[in-house]
Amino acid sequence: MNKTVLQIPINRDLRISAEKEAISQGFSSLQELVRVFLSKIATRKIEITLQESTMLSEKNEKRYLDMTKDFELEKNTYSSGSVSDLVNKLHENSVS
User: Fold this and answer.
1) Each residue of 64-75: pLDDT tens digit?
2) Which terminus of the chain is more solvent-facing, meaning fewer CB atoms within 10 Å of its CB: N or C?
């Protein structure tokens, strides 16, 4: 087998925590996890998607939690029996 060495400089703490997690997930080492990952991506058996998390400010987090409670309690909500009723209500609120 033709082998090569891949060197990736990373923070020591990152390596330690990644190695612990790899072992907790059943890999014998961090190197084994990287080999499996590279093998899967090279043979197109996995697809990678990166997405950043959206974090709300504390103020907006509280606001949305309060809104969720209102919806559950049917407080500050409006139920419409028909489309025309809903449109009338929307127009009524927009004139304010």
Assistant:
1) 999 999 999 989
2) N
